[in-house]
Design goal:
The complex is a heterodimer of chains A (398) and B (446). In chain A, helix 3 (114-127) packs across helix 5 (155-168). Chain A is 31% helix and 22% strand. Chain A is globular. The longest helix of chain A has 15 residues, at 293-307. With 398 residues, chain A is α/β, with parallel strands linked by helices. Chain B is of the alpha/beta class and 446 residues long. Helix content of chain B is 34%, strand content 20%. Chain B contains 16 helices and 17 strands. Chain B has helices at residues 28-35, 45-49, 56-64, 68-78, 82-88, 95-98, 110-123, 146-157, 174-177, 186-197, 209-218, 247-255, 276-287, 308-316, 381-385, 422-441, and strands spanning 136-142, 160-165, 201-203, 221-224, 230-231, 244-246, 268-272, 292-296, 320-322, 325-333, 336-349, 355-368, 370-373, 377-378, 400-401, 404-405, 410-412. In chain B, the strands form 5 sheets. In chain B, strands 3-2-1-4-17 form a 5-stranded parallel beta sheet, with helices on both faces. Chain B has a 5-stranded parallel beta sheet with strand order 6-13-7-8-9. Chain B has a 3-stranded antiparallel beta sheet with strand order 10-11-12, with no helix packed on it. Chain B starts with 27 loop residues before the first helix and ends in a 5-residue tail after the last helix. The chains are: A alpha/beta (398), B alpha/beta (446). At the A-B interface, helix 11 of A face loops of B.
Chain lengths: 398, 446
């Protein structure tokens, strides 16, 4: 039986959990239409504002780190909210709702005062939007004007602003997008809950400096010789996002849309296991295009089928009970590395990493075959991480 | 025999009409891409696979970090002919044969990476060898091929006063007149040779016993690397007919920049042999305009001493291979050379470990315009005999113990020690430089 990939989020049925996050990929109705046709369940249109809000962009906007040839392991942008104000976005909403009645059309908004927030809500509801996302989280540019993450870093501002929005929204659920650039996200998430808002989206980008040009000494991206801190996205931030999504899910009773470094169905499964009900992607479709939805859907369906789940909703939060504190971790659990010599290619990276980064517990035979010295191996699990062929596993010691 | 490996862009076989280099080498981004496949093995087997001991994983790590000049310095510390060897090394039988990545998919293209690194750094003018002011020696190096150049280089690095004796005007030996230009263009070869011979004292070749004795009395030690340049005869009737030439002579003529290369326009050519110089002679003949080139070898494909890359090059360029045939007689008839051949079959392995050719008594004839002998080359006995105390084995090779001849003052290297490859010659020269230093420190001839 084909598993049911649809999810219920704030009373809205999503045909699958995959949403395009508010980003350049959703800054145009025709682009979003192509994505929805390709199979995405919905899209959050790029954050918009009232017509009087000036949005002056700078270029270039992107910078990225590559690791041993793998591009966009992390990407920084210094883009802002959309140049397209609410008058254009409400047109997109009308067009998309008409063209894709079964898909979920969401819009992201940002305002500088109560009237703006509420006008945006009013006009989007008029246009027929399914859900309103509020950016309390843009880490660059907007905070200099008291917007974006300035709000999301302060529980009081968060609660007050969320209330304004919730107050104005008569029909559409309200979701607040939070910033990871905080010491503790729980009070912020709790403030969202207290405001009466319906859901949380976490996380926005992580404040970062993606690099410095070692020839010109200028920060990257470089705008006429100068640079700023930007918003880091991509696979590099997935562990940060997983941490924060799980933390919100464990501490606050509110639906979470997970975002941050998701590129494959495996990533999506992990986010759902730690409590996300839907997932949002941005950097991966910016890198490879909307077509990645095919494998996102197929891989997820195959996984669910293999694991015997009939609905994707069954996996939401399954990992949460397994998160604990250091104090509660077992002190009697012992493991040791074991090397499968059938798979081993004798590159001996395990040897060098254990020698210089571990416990000198791997030795080499004359022919360079590595072997574990059981009495020295503490089971730290460094060697399986470095083995290029997956020849090393951990064996439980009874 | 098909070898799976990464090969950079090349001139397509159908377009190889002249002596332009066939393999175009990696671009900067291709080199980076390839470097990222390297596993960076600990105590990597590729290092042991390299006769010159180039620290392969370390130089590739430097390519990955885009420290290309740093990578080149590492290569040049082990092998002063890095660009040359990056081109002509039979890497499939050396470093790449040992490469761990072979177990995952295909070995890292170490040779092409080395070539890229060296060419890049040479083009930036970043490779300079500085030799200390000599305070040891003097030592004589006789023979300016790769072994001699390498030995002179490493001796000078250790502070030795070195004089190189070479009969040719140009240095480099077989690098310049043995290896065809389509495998090793003149420019990188000349550039590397110039770098390691700048400031090197030179004298003419050695021809007489008197000269040899004078050298032995004036120099504390001698490194002898004259190469093997006497082509082995077919030893069959008709061998002296016009149109029967040696591969050595052909390759030298084709590589000479002094005279225009000979034309083989419209000619049908037979090349007899199965080693590197047979492949080179066959591919050179095609480039000289030959209508058809046949390679005749007395054993089968598996026993050919040529390396797979050389064989594949000849095959894809259209050389026609005839296995298990042995020349018996050459006759000139109607302006053609009629070659009588005997069909052979494979017998039991000989001392080389390869199955030996066995006569069948069945003969046939083929007509050619030219016949090129490329079966082997042996040392020049007449030259070796001028050196006092130098004993030779039955094939004319000097008897050696760890590279030292029966005259302890004379050290050996290169093809005279059966090096067979440029990189082994370089390694011989380097090893000998160390041995000469040790021997002299222990008192030398005194």
């Amino acid at each position: 039986m084909t598993p049911d990939l649809s999810v219920n989020f704030c009373g809205i049925r999503f045909p699958n959990p995959y949403i395009l996050a508010a980003a350049p990929t959703t800054d145009d109705g025709e682009m979003v239409a192509r994505a929805l046709e390709a199979g995405w369940a919905g899209a959050v249109l790029k954050t918009t504002s009232v017509e009087s809000e000036p949005v002056e962009l700078v270029y270039p906007q992107m910078g990225a780190i590559q690791v041993n040839g793998q591009k966009l392991v992390g990407m920084v942008n210094i883009d802002l909210i959309s140049k397209r104000h609410i008058d254009q976005v409400e047109k997109d909403v009308r067009y998309l709702k008409k063209a894709f009645p079964n898909k979920v059309i969401m819009a992201s908004i940002m305002g500088s005062r109560k009237e703006h927030w509420q006008e945006l809500v009013f006009r989007l509801e008029e246009a027929g939007v399914d859900l309103i996302e509020c950016s309390f989280s843009c880490p660059h540019g907007m905070p200099e004007r008291g917007m974006g993450s300035t709000i999301g870093q302060n529980p009081e501002l968060t609660e007050r602003t969320a209330r304004w929005v919730k107050e104005a929204a008569k029909r559409a659920p309200v979701m607040i997008k939070l910033t990871p650039n905080v010491t503790d996200i729980v009070p912020i998430a709790q403030a969202v809950k207290n405001s009466g808002a319906d859901a949380i989206c976490a996380i926005n980008t992580v404040l970062g400096l993606i690099g410095v040009d070692i020839d010109t000494f200028a920060p990257i991206p470089t705008v006429d010789g100068m640079g700023i801190y930007g918003g880091l996205s991509g696979p590099a931030i997935k562990p940060i996002a997983l941490h924060l999504v799980s933390k919100i899910a464990r501490n606050v009773d509110i639906p979470v849309s997970g975002v941050g470094g998701i590129s494959t169905w495996r990533d999506a499964v992990e986010f759902m296991l730690v409590g996300a009900r839907t997932v949002q992607l941005c950097t991966a479709p910016m890198h490879f295009g909307f077509r990645i939805i095919d494998d996102l859907i197929d891989g997820l369906a195959n996984y669910l089928e293999e694991k015997g789940f009939s609905s994707v909703q069954e996996i939401i939060g399954l990992a949460l009970p397994k998160l604990t504190t250091y104090e509660h971790l077992s002190r009697t659990h012992k493991v040791k590395s074991q090397i499968d010599l059938e798979t081993c290619i004798k590159c001996d990276l395990c040897y060098i990493s254990c020698r210089d980064g571990g416990h000198q517990a791997i030795s080499l035979k004359e022919d360079r075959t590595p072997f574990v010295e059981e009495e020295k191996c503490v089971g730290c699990a460094l060697c399986p991480q470095v083995c290029p062929v997956g020849a090393i596993s951990l064996r439980k010691i009874s | 025999m098909k070898v799976e490996r990464i090969v950079p862009r090349a001139i397509p076989p159908g377009k190889r009409k002249d002596f332009s280099e066939v393999l175009l080498g990696f671009t900067y981004s291709e080199a980076l891409f390839e470097s990222r496949r390297c596993l960076y093995c600990y105590d990597a087997p590729c290092i042991k696979g390299c006769p010159a001991g180039v620290n392969v994983p370390e130089f590739i790590a430097r390519v990955r970090s885009e420290n290309i000049v740093g990578a080149a310095k590492l290569i040049y510390a082990a092998n002063p002919l890095g660009s040359i060897c990056g081109r002509v090394c039979p890497t499939e039988a050396l470093c790449e044969k040992a490469c761990t990545s072979k177990l995952l998919n295909v070995p890292i293209a170490i040779g092409h990476l080395q070539r890229f690194v060296c060419d890049f750094s040479l083009s930036k003018g970043k490779i300079i060898f500085s030799y200390p002011k000599p305070d040891k020696g003097p030592v004589a190096v006789v023979g300016g091929g790769p072994a001699g150049l390498s030995c002179a280089h490493f001796l000078r690095l250790q502070g030795y006063d070195v004089t190189l004796f070479e009969k040719e005007d140009a240095l480099g030996g077989l690098l310049l007149h043995g290896i065809p230009r389509y495998r090793l263009p003149e420019q990188p070869a000349q550039e590397e040779i110039a770098l390691i011979t700048s400031g090197l004292k030179r004298e003419r070749g050695v021809f007489s016993r008197e000269q040899a004795e004078r050298i032995l009395s004036e120099f504390q030690a001698v490194f002898l690397s004259p190469g093997t340049n006497i082509p082995v005869k077919l030893d069959i009737p008709g061998e002296e007919e016009e149109g029967v030439i040696s591969a050595n002579d052909l390759l030298r003529e084709a590589a000479s920049s002094k005279a225009p290369p000979p034309s083989f326009e419209g000619k049908e050519v037979a090349v007899i042999g199965g080693g590197a110089s047979a492949m080179d002679a066959a591919r050179t003949s095609l480039r000289l305009g030959a209508a058809k080139v046949f390679l005749l070898y007395r054993r089968s494909k598996e026993e050919m001493p040529a390396f797979p890359s050389e064989f594949e090059g000849a095959l894809e360029e259209g050389v026609e291979f005839h296995w298990l045939v042995s020349p018996v007689e050459i006759r000139r008839t109607n302006g053609k050379l009629e070659l009588k051949l005997e069909r052979m079959r494979l017998g039991v392995p000989d001392e080389s470990g390869r199955r030996s050719p066995v006569r069948t008594g069945r003969y046939f004839r083929m007509d050619f315009d030219l016949i090129i002998k490329a079966i082997a080359a042996l040392p020049d006995r007449e030259f070796l005999k001028i050196w006092p105390g130098l004993e030779l084995d039955r094939n004319g090779y000097p008897i050696s113990k760890d590279g030292q001849s029966t005259n302890p003052q004379i050290f050996l290297g290169g093809d005279i020690l059966k090096a067979g490859t440029v990189v082994q010659a370089v390694a011989d020269g380097k090893t000998a430089a160390g041995r000469i230093d040790n021997w002299l420190k222990q008192g030398g001839a005194r």
